[in-house]
Amino acid sequence: MGKPLPSGVGVCSMCGKPLNAKGDCLACLLRTGLDHAAVETKPTVLAFGDFEVEQHPDGSCWELGHGAIGVTYLAADKVLRRRVALKVIEVPPAARGSQAVRDRFLREARAAAALRHPNVAAVFQFGTSPDASHCYYAMELIEGETLAARVRMDGPLNAKEALKIAIQIARALVAAAAHDLIHRDLKPSNIMLTGDSEVKVIDFGLAKAITNAGGEMDLTHGEFVGTPTFASPEQFGGAPVDARSDVYALGGTLWFALTGLAPHSGKTLEEIRDGKTRDRLPVAQLIARKVPEPLVKLLRSTLAIDPGKRPASARELMEALESCRRNLTRRVGVRSEEAALRSEAFSRALTNAKACAGDRESLQALFESAVKKAAAVSKKPFKRNWAYLQTMLRLIRAYHRGEYDQVSDDALVWIIAALNYLVDPFDLIPDSTPFLGLIDDAYVVELVTDKTRRTLDAFMTWETAAH
Amino acid sequence: MEEAVNLNTHAGNGQGRSDLFPSTHWSVVFAAGGSQAEPEMAGAALAELCQIYWAPLYGFVRSRGHTVHDAQDLTQSFFAYVLEHKVYARADRQKGRFRSFLLASLKNFLADAADRERTLKRGGAQIFLPLHEEQAQEAESLFQTHSGMSDEDRLFDRSWAEALVATALGRLLADYKREGKEQLFNELRMFVAGGAGPLPSYTELGHRLGITESTLRSHVTRLRARYREALRAEVRRTVDSEAQVDQELRELLHVLTQL
User: Fold this and answer.
1) In contact, B194 and A19? CB cutoff 8 Å
2) In A, which residues are within 8 Å of B164 by CB distance?
3) How many Å apart are CA A415 and CA B28, to the nearest integer?
């Protein structure tokens, strides 16, 4: 036996053997090679009732989102063979034995599941795990992003788009009112937007069910239910909560969509509560974003501390929002005939492209006609859209050559429509006709930007990597 | 909660990845040694293995009292000699392991003064294996760390173990890098390689990495499984059969626990 091994950088906290010069434990590293428990097995599948959580290729659970109250997974409905969004909430150990807790959760979840509306993500099924450690509910899977993510990614929305979203949320609230349901946790991250900015409100009526199950909301404080930043002042005081709380939360959500900020924020529950009950609304944020005055006025009333000063119901709020939108549309219509012409041109191009969707030959013909037109015009009139035009052409060519197949058929239709739009109105409106990034052509920006820019960005990334 | 465990491996796991590892198995060298069928392949296989295990051999030569430069020359010459004279052709397949074969061959080489002189001269002019300065420095540093060990065979085995795990970890890191998960590898490395500090709790680390505890557990399980496969694949290259993989690992572990 030789002398004791010179000490390296210490001993291993796991096995007590000396570490090597790199600070690694050689013994642990060798032992793992003999550890049969480390043999890779198919990762444990998380299953709740009929639902199995899907996994990434590396075996990790496919999370769609997570917060303090639980995790939302992409899951497969084993019976109906469809994909769902599965929200799983861990029940605190103290509440697991209570039949009353379980019953309350199921009652509230059942009420939420009864709500069916185009602007509400349907709840398909709910339940609790056999050991009562988790409760879960399966929702309609929405392909899209949350309003919070959209604003984070693209910045605050213009008034027209924000109103379009707010009106759809209000419609969902009106439908819920018919079922005596209150959301209680309306916020930008609970608003899903599909590619066409269609709204689906998620977690409707489930905040109460979760609390009944013993779950905790984002910041637990006694009986607090909701997310403090967007919750109504009365939710902090434990006062009875009615539909006007959701009206308030919708106001906060609309404010966020317009400014990228919450009307009141703070680091603690108390700071947020004090801000909501004492501070004036920071209306300057709206003015800086050039939010039209009628909308500012509506937001003031929607976010009133006193519920009695808010729109009395979701329907009243919806009508007020629609009135704001009509005013805005009239203003835009008077101000810009060109925008209307461009919108019309794009609608026409999209109708043409959609008519060809599913028929590869027709789509190809449409593409080729656009290519010819694009080739015949000079770069000058297109100005900053030229680069986009060229990228579209490269993308579609690569797609047809089978080199780039990561574009969905839907996105392809929009790209071809955008391509035709770029070419078509050239005769109609022979001026600079930028549509990407131009603010005054809200309709076209709204429709085209989201559909095409991301696809084009992804394509450019692929192209750069490939070449 | 229902849990379903499937013992079958699945695509993308260590088994599926094993084709990424070069197929320079010791058995290839043996086979070529016996039949002379594919000498180039055997030579290349041996050269790569020698490159990986340069440090243990260098350390052994140093432990025999040779200076840094002499030890470097001798180690290089030894490899050149092995490759040129196809020493592996005389290896006894039944004795199996590359580690034992190499150590025995080195001892013979060093003992044969005339042969050494001759090959030293030849090796000086004709270096078969490139020697990088960094590699030489690391080998010297490793030797210095363990130079207090009186048993030169054990010193050799310990250095061998170092080279073995370093190669396995290096290959695994390269895989994670390819997958764009280098940061994840570095964060979770301690779950495989240990360390002086206590392991963080899954809750704490998951929070820091912005992932749930269950996802973190799954990452750690997978890392351990992948490392295990990488290590065994590396050992597999130096032994003649799957059964010897366990035996080789146990022996190396035994050496460490005896130290």
Assistant:
1) yes
2) 30
3) 55
Torsion of the alpha carbons at A147, A309, A271 and A91, rounded to the nearest 10: -60
Of B63 and B132, which is predicted with more confidence? B63
For the stretch B141-180, pLDDT in tens is 888 887 777 788 888 999 999 999 999 999 999 999 988 8
Q: Reduce the DSSP state of residue A24 to 3 states and report it.
A: coil
The predicted-structure confidence for A292-342, as pLDDT tens digits, reads as follows: 888 999 999 999 988 899 999 999 999 999 888 887 765 544 445 555 555
The string of pLDDT tens digits covering residues B110-142 is 887 555 565 555 444 454 556 677 778 888 888
A431 at the B interface (CB within 8 A)? no
A78, A80, A82, A86: CA torsion to nearest 10: -60
**Summary mean pLDDT of chain A:** 75
Q: Is the pLDDT of residue A220 over 50?
A: no
In terms of residues, how long is chain A? 467
User: Are A47-140 and A145-333 the same fold in CATH?
Assistant: no
As for the ipTM of the complex, it is: 0.81
Is A64 in CB contact (< 8 Å) with chain B?
Answer: no
Average of per-residue pLDDT across B92-114? 75
Q: Where are the domains of chain A?
A: 1-39, 47-140, 145-333, 338-466
Nearest CA in chain B to A72: B212
| Partner-chain contact A40 B9, CB within 8 Å | yes
Q: How far is it, in rounded angstroms, from Cα A463 to Cα A404? A: 9
Identify the architecture of domain A47-140 in CATH: 2-Layer Sandwich (3.30)
| pLDDT at position B17 over 80 | no
Is A185 designated active site?
Answer: yes
Helix (H) or strand (E) holding A172: helix A159-178
Domain segments of chain B: what residues? 23-258
Catalytic residue selected from A185, A424, A441, A450:
A185
Cβ contacts of B212 on chain A, cutoff 8 Å: 61, 63, 66, 71
What digits encode the pLDDT tens for the residues A357-366?
666 677 677 7
**Residue B5: closest CA among chain A residues belongs to which residue?**
A44
Q: Which of A1, A12, A24 would you mutate first to test chain B, the one with the most B CBs within 10 A? A: A24
Q: What is the pTM of this model?
A: 0.46
If you average pLDDT over residues A274-301, what whole number do you get?
86
With beta carbons less than 8 A apart as the criterion, state whether A139 and A168 touch: no
The CATH homologous superfamily for domain A145-333 is: Transferase(Phosphotransferase) domain 1 (1.10.510.10)
- What residues of chain B lie within 8 A of the CB of A11, using their CB? 196
